[in-house]
UniProtKB/TrEMBL annotation:
InterPro entries: DNA_brk_join_enz, Integrase-like_cat_sf, Integrase_catalytic, Integrase_recombinase_N, Integrase_SAM-like_N, Tyrosine_recombinase_XerCD
Domain of life: Bacteria
Keywords tagged on the record: DNA integration, DNA recombination, DNA-binding
Stated name of the protein: Site-specific integrase
Pfam families: Phage_int_SAM_3, Phage_integrase
Organism this protein belongs to: Campylobacter jejuni
Lineage of origin: Bacteria, Pseudomonadati, Campylobacterota, Epsilonproteobacteria, Campylobacterales
Gene Ontology molecular-function annotations: DNA binding
Amino acid sequence: MYFKELAILFLDIKKGLYKISTYYKVEGIINNRLSLFFSYKISDIKPSFIKFWLSSIDDVGSKSKKHYLNILNQIFKLALDDDLLSKNPCENIKIIYFKPKINPFNSFEVNQILEKSLNYNYKFQIFLKIGFYTGMRTGEILALKIKEIDLEKRIIYINSTRSRFGEGAPKTFYSIRKIPIFNILYTDLKNFVLSNKNNTYLFETQYNKPYRDDFVFCKFYKQILKDLSLSYRRPYTMRHTFATNFLLNSNLSPLELSKILGHSSPEMVYKVYVKYIDDLKDNFKRDIQIYKI
């Protein structure tokens, strides 16, 4: 039996047992992460092959890898139950701690992307500008409602997030927050809000419904990166780009940035972004005035 056949059988069995959101998530992992095994007979998939597969995944951390391995393990357990295998090749495989390095865009690349976006729908342009100029998660952008944008106080209130499974509370308690609308974004956002003031959500489909996910925006986003010969980075990278550039330019302290990003403390900022910037800064400015008169 080929792995693809076994994976399909596994999904058929789990369809009535999983919550619909869990089922689609597992289905997505199988089709996107485990597809490497589809063309192999299950008897030909050895532990060394699985270890190689795990080591080749460099865009997610250990927690996600562990989840992928767990699904693979369950699929092979099904083969064991049917006496198709005598041993589970996932057995005794350990996940080595790994955290992917962030790969943000630099300021030149951001300007290239935004300039290229002028060839596309205005809605898409605003989506990118919000991503690059606020550090909001893509799900938070899609869930943003007109009433949560205070143009007078220049504040955005973040209260929810959206995904293909619907709308819900943000990632953590601290993700419920308010963030400033910086001058560089204000005029464009104001014009877009006023032209869509009768909408409930800032971004709505032609049927006046909120977008279920960022699929439509990703289509344009991927094409722009391709046209500019930039390596693909998921839209979430806009958030990393916002954070690293603010710190690089000393516009915000780690504490201030953590509040805008929705972290419980500056710890995550130090772990992810400050370390990244430290790796870039081999030379420090030496002509600064420490005590200004």
